[in-house]
Structure formats: structure tokens, C-alpha cells
Amino acid sequence: MSQLRTNGKKIPDSAMIYNTEKEPVFHEIKNTSSHLPNVNTWNDHFNQPEVQTKLLFQLLQSRPNLSHSLADYLIFSHLRKNGYFITAGLRFGGKFVAYPGDPLRYHSHLIVKPVYNGEKIELKKLVNGGRLATAVKKVYVIAGLTNKIDVDGVEPQLELDPKEFITSLEASPVKTFSFEWAGFG
Q: Which residues does the UniProt record annotate as the domain tRNA intron endonuclease catalytic (predicted)?
């Protein structure tokens, strides 16, 4: 081992070796959550279905393009009900990336691109999406609503019951179509 110097003094090799038998490398950190009262009850409050519904309702009201936000929510909800874990899909050219389980344990299987009512589907984009998905060992999925959500230009009323609003939204069925590109490798 080379000699280290501090302020001109040599440090012996024995001082550079850490003895793990005398002192542990990892130290336990005390749980300080008891010092912060109501932390757990505050988090539990947000996990209640009624609170989740109200928060979603407020979020949807604040969106500039409400019909796209509602369609995204319904597609997201549809995928979650079918057992997929969802993350952002921008790096793969989609809106969502769907995993069959925990994203830390599994690779994603689907690249999901929402198609909104009135939006034209270009064949070139379908081919590009299918080829990209196949190249990264995924399936390209386009998803859309069978019923049109006619809320553009209409401000949602605060008097609406959030639970009733979300229930009526979830009644709108989602259709999905998958594309795989054959002939690669």
C-alpha cells in the first residue's frame, strides 16, 4: 500500500484499514415517525376510495383538454383492471408502457398509444409503432373509447357528485388493438 500524507505527516497503513469487528459498517437509524404525530393517519386518509375519487375529479376539472384527459384516465383504468402496472411511455413512442407485474421485477410487454375520438390514424405511424415495438421486444397497442365523451368546451360543474361522475365515465368501454411486426429476426 502506498503511504498517504496529511499535513506533511505520514499515515501508517494500519490506520487506513477499517476493522469491521470493532465497529459495524452499517448503523441502524432510529424510527422518527413517532416524533411526527398524525403522519400515518394523514397518508391513510388519502388512500380512502372517496378521497381518491374527489382528488381525481378535481384533477380532471383542472385539465385544459378534458376529453383527452378523461380518455387517458379510462385507458389507464382499463389496463390496471386487467392486471397491468403502468408507467410513462414517452421513451418508446407511446403514452403508457404496461408491465405484467412490478416494473422492478418484469420487463414491459406493451407500448400503449391512445387514439382519441375524431383523431385520424395514419398507417405510417402504425407501421412505425409496430416495428419499434417489435425491435424492443414489445407489442404496440392502440387504445380508444367506443363512446365519444362530449365535454370539450364545457366546464365540468362543481355540483356534480364525483363518485357518480367517475362511475358514469367507467361505463364507457375501452377497445384495444395490438400490432406486432413479423419478419424481424
A: 72-148
